[in-house]
Each structure stands twice: as structure tokens, then as C-alpha cells.
# Entry
Amino acid sequence: MSHGKQFTLYTHVGGPNGWKVALLLEELGLSYESIYLDFQKNEQKQSPHIDYNPNGRIPTLIDHKNGDFVLWESNAILLYLVDKYDTEKRLTVTDEKEKHILNQWLFFQASGQGPYFGQYSWFARYHPEKVLSALERYQKETQRVLGVLDGVLAKSPSGWLVGGKFTIADLSFYTWDRAAISSILKDVEGVDVEKQFPAFRAWHKKTEARDSVKKLTELQAGLRTQTA
Ligand SMILES: N[C@@H](CCC(=O)N[C@@H](CS)C(=O)NCC(=O)O)C(=O)O
# Structure
């Protein structure tokens, strides 16, 4: 076991998918050590990380109290953690239909939100050429996804996605939504997230106010200044 912590989390200072897992570990009060990989050095594609995760992308989690069990894909990790360690089922649901709805949101996040928001970041920061049509496509797709969430949340009496409470479904969207607000849609002419997607914005703010989120946002800001 590494330094007596139950989990090792391979992650990245800026990567939204890694912070999702850290947030749930915080929510569940589980102990973990984060190893921040350097993407500039391509550490995610090298040993030791690649030995655990053949996909070479973060996050990867190792559970030392469960025979050094290794898991990757952030939403698979969220499901594992609530299944095994959320004994009171605080952050998940138990009703059969609601379980499927929770999965629906996790799949939508992993296929419809993360990749599109992530592709925007790739074209904005790393792609060698400036491809305006690609940037516009991903900005439009980001707005479309926020519209889907806003429509559903506006009709939800609790203001949460499933089960009438905050669950891993809500948590799974948070970190990429933060990127949408602070970066992807920030300076887009004619776009006002607050006005266009009020139910989405209210939902995002409720998550933002959680202790786990406040703690890790502060930690991330500190790490960013160290690595800047
Ligand atoms: N579907 C995966 C996506 C993982 C992913 O794209 N991670 C990004 C960081 S947020 C990454 O490792 N990028 C580095 C690379 O592609 O080499 C998940 O949810 O875990």
C-alpha cells in the first residue's frame, strides 16, 4: 500500500476526468494519494501508468485494500466506488428504474459531454493549426449538451438528475461543465450561459457549493500555480 493510503489515483492537474474521481473519494471520505502525470512528457503513455491502463489516459485508480484492484474509465470508477464503499447509498440510487436512469446519464456524460468538450480543448490548445470550423462545431455541441441538461433539470422538482438528490450522475458532469463555463463558451458572442441555461446554471452552482468541490478547487488552483 502506498503511504498507508487506500487508493492510488493516477491523474492530471488540469484533467477534468481525474478530478471527478478525486471528488467522489472526498465525498466518501476515502484516503488516496494522487499522482499527477505530466502530459508534456507523455507520462500517461509510459510505465508505470501504461502497465495499469492500456488506454494511456487518466484517471486510473488502484484499490490497495481490494488486492490492488485496478480500474480505469472515470465513470466505471465512480460506479465501483459507490457500489463497494457507499454503504448507505448516499450518492447513488437503489430503485431499479432509477439505477438505469443513473447509468443513462453516466453514458451520456462519457459519450456526449466529455469527448465533445474535450475535443474543443484539443483544437483550442494543442492542434497545430487553427481550425475555426472545428472550434465552432464543438462550441455548438457544448451548447446543445447544456441545453439537454437545462431542459431536464428545469422539469426536475429536486433540481437533480435522478433520485431527487445529488448522485454520481450529477457529479460526473461537473468538472467538464466548469470548463464549458470558464473556457469553451466564455467569450462566445451572443452566448450567456446564465441566461440561456438557468436551470443548468443553478444545478452547477449547487454542486460548486459542496465542501468536496470547494476543497479540491482550492487544491487544483494551488497545483496550477506550482506547475505554471
Ligand atoms: N472516457 C475517459 C476519458 C479519459 C481522458 O480522455 N482523459 C484525458 C484527461 S481528462 C487524458 O488522459 N488525456 C491525455 C491523452 O489523451 O493522452 C474517462 O472518462 O476516463
Q: What stands out?
A: Strands lie at 7-11, 32-36, 60-63, 69-72.
